[in-house]
UniProtKB/TrEMBL annotation:
SUPFAM superfamilies assigned: NAD(P)-binding Rossmann-fold domains
Keywords: NAD
Signal peptide: none
Residue intervals of the NAD(P)-binding domain: 4-305
Keyword NAD belongs to the record: yes
Name of the protein in its database record: NAD-dependent epimerase/dehydratase family protein
InterPro entries: NAD(P)-bd_dom, NAD(P)-bd_dom_sf
Length: 323
C-alpha cells in the first residue's frame, strides 16, 4: 500500500511509520516539525526513518489546504493515517486556537482531499482524554460529550467530522483512542520522559496531586501495531488502544528509580483541573475487531525506555523538557 502518514516525525508517528516500512509499505510522511517540544527529537526520528528506501518525507502543515493539495496531486494514496496533532492537555488551555487549527481544521482538510482524490481508508488518532467523567473501564459505546480540555474537545470535533465524511462519502474510518503512550524517543512533555530525565539528572520531579492517580500506560510499539491493524475495512468504528492494566503514577516513579539506581526528588503541587484522576481502557473491541492486544507490560516497557535513554545519554538527557 501507499500510505500518507501525518505527524511522521512525532512519537507515535515515528513508530507507526517504522512498522509500515518494515512490512513493505510505501509511506509518504509529512510533519510541520513545530517547536512545541525540542525539535531535535523530531529530527532524530525523521533521520532514522529516512534510512528506509520506501519512505519519503515532506515538511508541511496539515492546516494548509493548498500545500496538502499539491501532495495529493503528486501521489495516489491507498490510505491516510492522521497522527498529526497538537497534543498536551495543559497547554491547550493556554493556547486553544492552535489545537483546533491542527486537530479539527487539519482533519477536515485531509478528509476533503480523501473525498476529492478517492482515498477510501482513513485512520484517525484520538484520545482517552475524551472519557472524562465516564465510569471505568472506558468503553467506546457510550457518548463522550464532557471534554474537560480544548485538546479533548478538538479531538471530539475530529471524530465526529470523520463520521460525517463516512456518512456522506463512504470513507472507511477507524478512530483509535490512545491511552497514555510511552516508550523510547518519547515526548518530553509527558511524565515518563520527564521523570526519567529528571531523576537521572538529579532534578526535582513535579507531581500534581499525591501520585495516587492512575493511567493505562501503553507501550508505543503496541500502539503502532494497533494503528497499522486499524487499516482494515471497518465502516466507521471507534476503537480503544490501551494496556487494559492501569498503574499508579507513584508505582511508575518507583520503577524508574529502580532502573536508574537513583531516588527521585519529589515536588508536589495541587492536582490539575484539566487532568483525569484515572484512565482504564476496555479493549474488547480491539481484540475482536482488529485481533489486537498489548504485548508489553509496564515493567518491560519502562526497561526498554530507560535503555534508550542510557544508550543515547549524550543526546537524550539533554533534551529540553516541556511541561
Amino acid at each position: 500500500m501507499k500510505i500518507l502518514l501525518t505527524g511522521a516525525a512525532g512519537f507515535i508517528g515515528y513508530f507507526t511509520t517504522k512498522k509500515l516500512l518494515e512490512e513493505g509499505h510505501e509511506v509518504i510522511g509529512i510533519d510541520n516539525l513545530n517547536d512545541y517540544y525540542d525539535v531535535r527529537l523530531k529530527e532524530y526520528r525523521k533521520n532514522e526513518l529516512e534510512k528506509y528506501d520506501n519512505f519519503t518525507f515532506i515538511r508541511v502543515d496539515i492546516s494548509n489546504f493548498e500545500a496538502l493539495s499539491v501532495i495529493f496531486q503528486t501521489y495516489k494514496f491507498d490510505a491516510i493515517i492522521n497522527l498529526a496533532a497538537r497534543a498536551g492537555v495543559r497547554y491547550s488551555i493556554v493556547n486553544p486556537f492552535v489545537y483546533y487549527e491542527t486537530n479539527s481544521t487539519g482533519t477536515v482538510n485531509l478528509l476533503e482531499l480523501a473525498k476529492n482524490y478517492e482515498v477510501n481508508k482513513f485512520v484517525l488518532a484520538s484520545t482517552s482524554s475524551l472519557y472524562a467523567g465516564q465510569p471505568m473501564p472506558f468503553t467506546e459505546d457510550k457518548p463522550v460529550n464532557t471534554p474537560i480540555s480544548p485538546y479533548a474537545a478538538s479531538k471530539k470535533s475530529a471524530e465526529v467530522t470523520c463520521y460525517t465524511y463516512h456518512f456522506y462519502y463512504g470513507i472507511d474510518v477507524s478512530v483509535v483512542r490512545y491511552f497514555t503512550v510511552y516508550g523510547p524517543a518519547g515526548r518530553p512533555d509527558m511524565s515518563v520522559f520527564r521523570f526519567i530525565s529528571q531523576i537521572y539528572n538529579e532534578q526535582p520531579i513535579i507531581i500534581y496531586g499525591d501520585g495516587s492517580q492512575s493511567r493505562d500506560f501503553t507501550f508505543v510499539e503496541d500502539i503502532a501495531a494497533g494503528t497499522v491493524k486499524a487499516l482494515k475495512p471497518v465502516g466507521y468504528e471507534i476503537i480503544n488502544l490501551g494496556n487494559n492494566s492501569p498503574n499508579k503514577l507513584s508505582e511508575v516513579i518507583e520503577k524508574i528509580e529502580e532502573l536508574l539506581g537513583k531516588k527521585a526528588i519529589k515536588e508536589f503541587k495541587p492536582f490539575h483541573k484539566a487532568d483525569m484522576m484515572a484512565t482504564w481502557a476496555d479493549i474488547t473491541k480491539a481484540k475482536t475487531l482488529l485481533n489486537w492486544q498489548p504485548q508489553v507490560d509496564i515493567n518491560e516497557g519502562l526497561e526498554k525506555t530507560v535503555k534508550w535513554f542510557l544508550d543515547n545519554k549524550e543526546f537524550a538527557f539533554n533534551i529540553k523538557l516541556t511541561e
